[in-house]
Amino acid sequence: VEDVRQIRENIRMVPANARYKLYVIDEVHQLSIAAFNALLKTLEEPPAHAVFILATTEAHKVPATIISRCQRYDFRRVGVDDLKQLLRKILDAEGMACSDEALAAIARAADGGVRDSESILDQLMSYCDKEITFEDVFNLLGLVDWEVMHSLCRAICEQDVTTLLTTVEDVVVTGKDLSQFVQDILRYYRNLLVCKSGGPKELLALPDEEVAEMRQWANQFTLTELIRLVEQFSELTNGFESQLAQRTALEATLIKVSKRSVEISVDTLLEKLALLQENGAPITDTLTETPKPKKKRPLTPPEPASDESPKIAKPDAPPSAAQVREIPPEPTAQIPSETDRDLLIGDMVNQQEGRKALEDENLSKVVDTFKGKIVDIQHPAATPE
Questions:
Q1: Cβ count within 10 A of residue 258
Q2: φ/ψ bin of 112: left (φ > 0), alpha (ψ from -120 to 50), beta (otherwise)
Q3: Rounded distance, CA 350 to CA 330, Å?
């Protein structure tokens, strides 16, 4: 906020030797909300001699009130060939030599950024004497050689777990960054995916010799396998708490992707099915009929015994195990009709009247007098049994 206030105070002064005052605010999305509010009035009504340039790589983080008061220009990433030409001009002006392979590695590492490519080149110029080699670029950036990537790819194809674990050990021992190693693996298999899907070579940003080699390795996988590899290696780009956790996750992923025979893709099954059809193998749509289960014969319930002479009948032979005895259903209660209901109600009323008369008779033998709220109870003498 203090810097924005300082700009607001200095912007009123007219430049002495130039027509305009140019203010460049880089990474403007990092300003706080209070700083944006302090700058808003100046952006709405800037002086005629003032020009603001707000640069950012994350325009979605800039408030809409600021974006609506600016003219927006989106810059695209610079291609590898254009970056190589720019870096070559700088090297020629400084009188240093550099191979095309090293320049391509610098341009790929910059990922389309001119400033990043120039920063890498400045470090290499201070690190090297008169010539920048491919090994110097790889050592400075902590990259892994393409031969290591090819060896890793060969080990995955051959399911060579020992080579996979040894490669990770060599990367750790040589002091390489595992995060950068995972990025290199992801970029490598992304290139294989582009080659397998028939993408143009311009998407690879690689020399023609490396493109031809990448296409050969891409033929060792199916498209589904490459998609699965890219998805699994992408999960390793998430932050890990320690290098041990990242190394363990990387080794586990490499072992998992090497077991190619465990998972069979749908495309592979369809290819095999088409091959069977070409060879004349009949494919029918009819399903085999499953045998219907045989119905079990229910056992007849035994006849009720007569009341005259109950006899225990001994079975002639024990029942076989195949027979299943069925328990006869319990008789359910029938709903009484209206006539039966009236009879039941009459019986209940008669029972209640008889019980009340009995209670009155017993009570009259006990109660002697009743005056107001006082009841005199007479205790009859106990009669001898």
A1: 18
A2: left
A3: 33
**136 and 179 fall within a common domain:** no
CB 237 within 8 A of CB 182: yes
Per-residue pLDDT for the chain (385 aa), expressed as one digit of tens each? 788 888 888 888 888 888 999 999 999 999 999 999 888 888 888 899 999 999 998 899 999 999 999 999 988 888 888 899 999 999 999 889 998 888 888 988 888 888 899 999 999 998 888 889 888 888 888 778 778 888 899 999 888 999 999 999 998 888 888 888 898 899 899 999 999 988 887 788 777 778 888 888 899 888 888 999 999 999 888 777 788 888 899 999 999 988 865 455 566 777 778 888 777 655 554 444 445 555 555 555 555 555 455 455 555 555 554 454 555 555 555 555 556 666 666 667 666 666 666 555 555 555 555 556 665 666 555 544 4
pTM of the model: 0.54
- 112 and 16 in one domain? no
Report in angstroms the alpha-carbon separations of 159 from 23, 165, 219, 224, 226: 58, 12, 16, 18, 15
Q: Are residue 188 and residue 248 in the same domain, yes or no? A: yes
- DSSP secondary structure code for residue 236 in this structure: G
87 and 53, same structural domain? no
Asked if residue 144 lies in contact with residue 176, where contact means CB atoms within 8 angstroms, the answer is yes
Range of the domain at 115: 76-141
For the chain, the domain total comes to: 3
Tell me the Cα Rg of the chain. 47
- 212: CATH: 1.20.272.10
Q: Which residues pair with 26 in a beta bridge?
A: 55
Of 255, 253, 205, residue with least CA distance to 78: 205
Specify the CATH number for the domain of residue 51: 3.40.50.300
Plot region of 66 (φ>0 → left; ψ -120 to 50 → alpha; else → beta): alpha
For residue 359, give both structure tokens: 């209670």
Do the Cβ atoms of 252 and 235 come closer than 8 Å?
no
